[in-house]
Design goal:
Helix 3 runs parallel beside helix 6. The protein has three domains: 122 residues, no CATH class; 224 residues, Sandwich (Jelly Rolls); 81 residues, no CATH class. Strands 6, 8, 9, 11, 15, 16, 17, 18 and 20 form a nine-stranded antiparallel β-sheet that branches. The chain is 13% helix and 24% strand. The chain contains six helices and 20 strands. It is of the alpha+beta class and 455 residues long.
Length: 455
């Protein structure tokens, strides 16, 4: 399977001869999601490559050939296939691994997690997380332990590291900007900011969260660790100076890198979903099975799973952002942190990745950080009265919330009606009107801008 961009970058994932004997039928699926080109054979991912920058959409009017390569430019039809084909289909999105397995199994076994034109999507039943931090302006726990487990943001003491809420993958996310002493080794240091959750992992469970790296390189950056020891019950970036491999391990003395992703996520400025699962053996309590998933799929690495790994009792606190001395603190944005007391199935993990709601503009949010606040008021005041679009901004980003290509009092009324949306409320509900001081701010800003224009 070949994908080539305008710059000449080529991705050519292939199926090895071992997996493709010429006798008998084989099920082949090729996907491209804008970053990765993947090829599956008989329900299993066999190769994945990336080509940057993304090629974008294929121009209309192009011809797709099944069983041959269509003519292009001066070339003629060629590359004819000698064999048989059946059940061909084309989707306008990249299928995930679970959907490919579902197709290979003729609709049996692994369920499809999103609707598509040819198969109905069965409902995926999701368990309730014990801990759920939506991170919409606060650390409110909406999981089943909401009455007993309270997450806290440990403030930085180094005088440099900071935290703030910004646009996340789902609503808002928590951004941690920690001081980094070294990106080439695990330099011991303290004083950063991180999230602390007083919870003891159960014998069976899962942890899942969205994360976006905000610096590069990012070798050894900790994403999750545990109070039992800095190297145990840990998700982190390993060898991030080269290609940002993500890894998860339970007991570092038994298996050094459980679930290392062989093909990196890399510093692409995007959110990615990391999910780790474990299930302690009832027959032999010293053993545990662990799995690692990236963006809803089993990690395509040297160790995406470990069967009969060694069990290690966890500590009573889980950290996100680097809570143990000696672990590199996070420089990035978290969103939708979930901890379960059950091992999620592949279908459920794929559902977490696929079921992200579409991004919807919040009336009054000109800056796009999912909060209607002073920054939006300042933006609206800056472009008050504008009837032409400013270079580099959309009308919405200028403060035109009713889409009439004018920034005026009607837009100010919309901003006022949604004042406080997303700030300090787990439900992200807006207050009726701004505080009196904010009305003064709005009025003052408008007056300043109008006075300048009258000079």
């Amino acid at each position: 399977f070949k994908v080539q961009n305008d710059a000449g970058g080529v991705a050519k994932p292939g199926i090895g001869q071992t997996y493709l004997p010429t006798e008998g039928w084989h099920h082949v699926v090729a996907t491209y999601d804008g970053t990765y080109a993947k090829i599956y054979c008989d329900g299993q991912l066999r190769s994945r490559e990336t080509t940057m920058p993304a090629i974008g959409q294929i121009p209309s009017g192009q011809v797709t050939g099944l069983g041959y390569q269509p003519a292009s430019g001066t070339s003629v039809d060629q590359g004819y296939f000698h064999g048989s084909m059946d059940e061909t289909a084309v989707w306008n999105r990249a299928l995930n691994a679970n959907e490919v397995a579902y197709l290979y199994n003729s609709g049996a076994g692994v369920a499809v997690s999103a609707a598509n034109p040819t198969i109905a999507a069965p409902t995926v039943v999701m368990p309730t997380p014990v801990v759920h931090l939506a991170l919409n302006g606060n650390l409110t726990n909406t999981g089943s332990s909401s009455g007993t487990v309270t997450a806290t943001l440990v403030a930085a003491t180094d005088g440099v590291s900071t935290s703030t809420y910004e646009a996340g993958e789902i609503g808002q996310g928590l951004r941690l900007d920690n001081q980094v002493l070294s990106t080439t080794s695990e330099t011991d240091f303290t004083g950063g900011t991180y999230v602390s959750v007083p919870y003891t992992m159960t014998d069976e469970g899962s942890v899942s969260f969205w994360f976006k790296v905000n610096m590069t390189p990012y070798n050894h950056m900790s994403l999750m660790d545990n109070s039992v020891f800095k190297e145990d019950w840990e998700i982190w970036y390993n060898n991030g100076t080269g290609n940002g491999q993500a890894a998860w391990r339970l007991d570092y003395q038994y298996t050094n890198q459980v679930g290392t992703a062989e093909d990196s996520i890399g510093f692409d400025g995007e959110f990615h979903l990391y999910t780790a699962t474990w299930n302690r053996s009832e027959a032999d309590p010293t053993k545990v099975d662990v799995f690692f998933y990236v963006d809803g799929e089993v990690a395509n690495g040297a160790f995406p799973e470990q069967i009969d790994d060694r069990w290690l009792n966890p500590g009573n606190t889980v950290f996100f952002g680097g809570g143990n001395d000696g672990n590199q603190h996070s420089v990035g944005t978290y969103d939708d942190i979930r901890i379960y007391d059950v091992e999620l199935t592949p279908e459920q993990i794929a559902e977490l990745f696929i079921s992200v709601p579409p991004v919807v503009d919040i009336p009054g949010d000109a800056t796009g950080n999912n909060i209607v606040d002073e920054d939006d008021a300042k933006r609206l005041a800056t472009y008050w009265g504008a009837t032409t679009k400013a270079e580099g901004l959309t009308w919405w980003e200028m403060g035109d919330f009713n889409n009439d290509n004018v920034v005026d009092a009607r837009d100010a009324a919309i901003l006022a009606a949604n004042w406080g949306f997303g700030a300090g409320s787990s439900e992200s509900t807006a207050t009726a009107v701004p505080e009196p001081s904010m009305w003064l701010l709005l009025t003052g800003l408008f007056a300043v801008v109008l006075a300048r224009r009258q000079r």
